[in-house]
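User: Show me an example of a complex going from sequences to structure tokens.

Assistant: Sure. Here are the input components:
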Amino acid sequence: MIILEYLTVIFLLIGGFFLLVGSIGLFRLPDFYMRLHAPTKASTLGIGSILVASIIFYSFKGDGVSIKEFLITLFMFLTAPITAHMLSKAALHVRQPPRPDTLNIDQLENIRDRK
Amino acid sequence: MTPTNRSWIPSTFNFVLLFVVWLLLTNSFTIGNILLATFLAWGIPFLISGLQSETSRVKKPLKAAQYLFILLWDIIISNVVVARQVLGNTHHLQPGFLAIPLDLTDPLPITLLASTISLTPGTVSTEVSVDLKTLYVHALNVDDEQILIASIKQRYESRLKEIFGC
């Protein structure tokens, strides 16, 4: 039982760490497009780890295997990329300027130009 | 898609998916709830069948499962990489927009590829060209444009092509 508690703690810490890194990235990175990377990604691994911790904790509390977390993970994996895509797409079309040294910045007009 | 050529297998898939998701969500396994789950799992696909368009089907489910594990592994690895980049000197990062030429032609595999790219840290799908031939991606740190494009094509796109058999 003590091992399970340690496992729960380890996964909670890993999850917390990556969520924190996501927030730090949101704060530190220089332009909108780069900032987008940090929180969208942290959500996958960070929340994933916390859900694993939750599965371990509730499965061994005696209520049987907890599977709701898999559903949360599934829905997260379905929605997270769409959010990221729509945010970056919106930024592109409202001409949010990327950092000037971004590669292929001269092609942005071509990318935007879709009817 | 007309109801006459609706194939049996995807509706079985939809049925099982909705059935399991309903049971898990309600977390109750009484006979009444199982009956309700059965009813919903038949009724919902029936109601929305008119909305479904002709899409590609998964031809190799085993390869799809393998793809899922590769994706999970890549998410873990690249999260660590991005964490290091975020905590390091962010002004040394070289962000960039990449144009990935697509070999895939159908909307569903392209959507999956775009989602895969967005899920793996360091890259976000930004836009797809009108003719569905190019996917534009923003990358957090580009060491070598061609190598990055080639690795995405080889690691994800070729596998998706195999899974959907197109």
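The lines above are the inputs; the final block is the predicted structure for all two components together. Chain B has five helices and three strands.
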